[in-house]
């Protein structure tokens, strides 16, 4: 049975979902995820739609009827076949200028589309495309809360200075070499820069940030996090770091991941009194000696520690010794304790 025959029946069975927003206003959601549609000719686009999800289809041109959905707040075109020309018409659709969330993830875009018409945009996702430059972001609404541009070909952090309300910035899996232009992102809470080519940390005084990922870069030093006093999670695995340093001010840190580096010892984390997760696996730590002193501030809080694939993991009574050091530990490597 083809999609044209199925759609009306599916719509009556909950494909079209009438809900209520938190503020009490009505919400109508149309979810066409994974229908493998090449167009929307067989679909009735109800004028009352507030959310339209077209994830995982075969669309390459955007249906002009979408431009008349005056109540639309969320539009997902994720995992389709849109190129720059295919998505371009959306730039002039004034009737849907109230859009708050636009997802263009996993398509064939070569550049940031012009979304300047959407003054209320809060979430913008163009990850998993072929975008080589952030040029065009300067036109994106300055009230944006979440920006996702991961898995592209971006080489420079630019045109982001006006995002003073941005809370999440995802630029992982690009070709970035420098951390820059972050000074004005005073509301930023999460910064994801894994899988780039960054050699040095430059956070420009982001005092309120809570999560940072710089996994799989080219760092050899941990210096640069000192002012991030609100930081709770720090991910630095798969770099070239040989020494734990610059962490003494991070008193709110709960998770520290420095696995797959070049550490030979555990030092300078005595002040991390709230640390719960410590990932040190796949380093060159020779001995457990001094470990208890190194994490003395968090002995009672630590619940998870990874040390496998270090020379010290071959020590006699390895697990027993760690459980004695950390009385409340719940997991050591792959071993989980009740």
UniProtKB/TrEMBL annotation:
Keyword entries, A-Z: Leucine-rich repeat, Repeat
Superkingdom, natural source: Eukaryota
Alphabetical list of SMART domains matching this protein: LRR_SD22 (SM00365), LRR_TYP (SM00369)
Classification via SUPFAM superfamilies: L domain-like (SSF52058)
Coiled coil: none
Renumbered residue ranges of the record's region Disordered: 1-24
Pfam families: LRR_4 (PF12799)
Keyword Repeat: yes
Name of the protein described by the UniProt record: Protein phosphatase 1 regulatory subunit pprA
Origin species: Nepenthes gracilis (Slender pitcher plant)
């Amino acid at each position: 049975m083809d999609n044209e025959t199925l759609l009306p029946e599916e719509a009556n069975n909950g494909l079209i979902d009438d809900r209520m927003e938190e503020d009490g206003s009505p919400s109508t959601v149309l979810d066409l995820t994974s229908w493998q549609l090449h167009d929307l000719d067989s679909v009735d686009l109800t004028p009352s739609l507030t959310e339209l999800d077209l994830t995982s289809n075969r669309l390459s041109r955007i249906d002009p009827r979408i431009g008349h959905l005056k109540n639309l707040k969320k539009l997902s075109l994720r995992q389709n076949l849109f190129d720059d020309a295919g998505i371009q018409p959306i730039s002039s659709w004034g009737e849907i200028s109230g859009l708050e969330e636009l997802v263009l993830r996993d398509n064939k875009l070569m550049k940031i589309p012009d979304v300047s018409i959407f003054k209320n945009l809060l979430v913008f996702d163009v990850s998993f495309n072929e975008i080589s430059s952030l040029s065009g972001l300067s036109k994106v609404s300055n009230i944006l809360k979440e920006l996702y541009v991961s898995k592209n070909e971006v080489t420079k952090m630019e045109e982001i200075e006006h995002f003073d309300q941005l809370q999440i910035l995802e630029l992982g899996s690009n070709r970035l070499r420098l951390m820059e232009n972050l000074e004005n992102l005073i509301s930023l809470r999460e910064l994801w820069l894994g899988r780039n080519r960054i050699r040095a940390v430059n956070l420009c005084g982001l005092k309120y940030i809570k999560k940072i990922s710089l996994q799989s870069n080219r760092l050899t030093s941990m210096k640069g996090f000192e002012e991030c006093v609100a930081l709770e999670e720090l991910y630095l695995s798969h770099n070239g770091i040989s020494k734990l340093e610059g962490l003494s001010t991070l008193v709110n840190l709960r998770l520290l991941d420095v696995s797959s580096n070049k550490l030979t010892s555990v030092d300078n984390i005595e002040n991390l009194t709230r640390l719960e997760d410590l990932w040190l696996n796949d380093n060159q730590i020779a001995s457990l000696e001094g470990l208890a002193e190194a994490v003395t501030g968090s002995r009672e809080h630590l619940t998870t520690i990874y040390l496998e694939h270090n020379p010290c993991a071959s020590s006699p009574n390895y697990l027993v010794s760690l459980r004695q050091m950390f009385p409340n530990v719940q997991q050591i490597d792959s071993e989980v304790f009740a």
